[in-house]
Amino acid sequence: MNGDDRWDDDARAAYQLPIEGEEQARDRAILRLRRESAKRRTGMGAWWVDPDGLRMRPALAAVCVLAVLVIGAWSGAGWMASRGVRAPRPSIATLPSGSTAVTFVFRAPGATRVSLVGDFNGWDPEATPLARATTGEIWIAQVPLEHGLHAYAFVIDGRDWAPDPSAPLAPVATFGRRNSLLVVGEDQAL
Amino acid sequence: MTDAELVAHAVAGDVGAFEGLVARHHADCLRFAAHMLGDRIEAEDVVQETLLRAYRSLGTYQERQQFRPWLFRILVNRCRTAAGRAHARRLRTAVELTPGAAIVRDATDGFELRSRLSRAMEGLDEVHREAFVLKLGEGLEYEEIARITGASVPALKMRVKRARDQIRARWEELEHDERR
Q1: What is the C-alpha separation between B176 and A166, in angstroms, rounded?
Q2: Which parts of the sequence belong to the RNA polymerase sigma factor 70 region 4 type domain (chain B) (predicted)?
């Protein structure tokens, strides 16, 4: 190897050193892309055009999610009551506008902040923070959602994404992450 | 899955497929923009704009093209626009940026090398910097660089040679100073 080649190798190695914070920058780029995509879907008015690679018949998803929501809300309320936490009741309430108020409950021991991300808020971790319940481990948010199928996840301390353990997962991972599924409909009642 | 397959899925409306392309190419784009602009934050903005523009333009993408050069053509244009803005800002404020400080420090020995490269590239004009980074940094063929930049292959070879000579001379001066 001559001196020119060696210098080229050194310069190339210097150039190719990873840029600090690249992964976070990539995540931010993907969030912005998802917002863009969500805007497009809203424009088309087709909620079943899956935002995240979802491959499930909406009717089947509706049945599955409704069943899990009923069980999850019932058991979650019992768990919280046993620890002195006031359960959010009702978990789902139909609003006059046709949208529905959905209460999300998530247990995150040791977290300093938890937020909700989904197709309904452009996957923005700053948009929908959860409030900490008095026990400290339970986090709650109530969000009005339009009727239809929604994908969502929780973000812990602005960094770690986690699906909802009480809800079914989207069958296809998006960017290595599995999101949870939720169907909100006019005929739902708890 | 290849880039072409991911593009085909993305064109069909699968945003997850486009995210796969972002995951695959974001680091290269950010690195290129950071070295072109000398500003990590501005580089991130430019890369986001590039990816959004690419996403919106997927309908114009031709299957015979390769995705990476197509994406880099958009990126190069965004960097040129951003560099023009930055130049105008500098003229207005008379504040010189410090390229060495713009590419963020690693907690490794790599900092020394990167800092040296960044400082050695100071003062290099945009077209020479662009040719050097695409050729030596990204390892693209001259024909690809010609398609990306719109310059001819002979002109690019000349630019790379001049840039390389200038950067290497400055690099060796810096290396000498560091040893003293």
Answers
A1: 62
A2: 116-166
Instruction: List the domain range (segments joined by +) for residue A140.
Output: 5-184
**Confidence at A147, pLDDT banded by 50, 70, 90:** confident
Number of domains chain A contains: 1
Domain boundaries, chain B: 1-103, 105-180
Subunit contact A19:B137, Cβ cutoff 8 A: no
Q: Do B16 and A174 touch (CB under 8 A)?
A: yes
pLDDT at B153: 96
What's the confidence (pLDDT) of residue B109?
Answer: 53
Asked if the Cβ–Cβ distance from A25 to B15 is below 8 Å, we say no
Buried b vs exposed e over A82-92: b needs ≥16 C-beta within 10 Å?
A: eeebebbeebb
User: Chain A residues with CB inside 8 Å of B168's CB?
Assistant: 7, 11
- Residue B75 banded pLDDT, cuts 50, 70, 90: very high
| Range among A59-68, A98-107, B81-90 with highest mean pLDDT value | A98-107
Fold observed for domain B105-180: Arc Repressor Mutant, subunit A (1.10.10)
Tell me which of A17, A24, A31, A123 to substitute to probe the interface with B (most B C-beta atoms closer than 10 Å).
A17
The CATH code for residues B1-103 is: 1.10.1740.10
Question: Crossing angle for the helix pair B15-37 and B67-93, nearest 10 degrees?
Answer: 40
pLDDT number for residue A73: 57
Average pLDDT over residues A43-66: 52
Separation in Å, CA A21 to CA B32, B33, B153: 15, 14, 35
Structure tokens at A1: 């190897």
Interface of A with B (CB under 8 A): 7-8, 10-22, 25-26, 28-30, 32-34, 36-37, 49-53, 172, 174-175
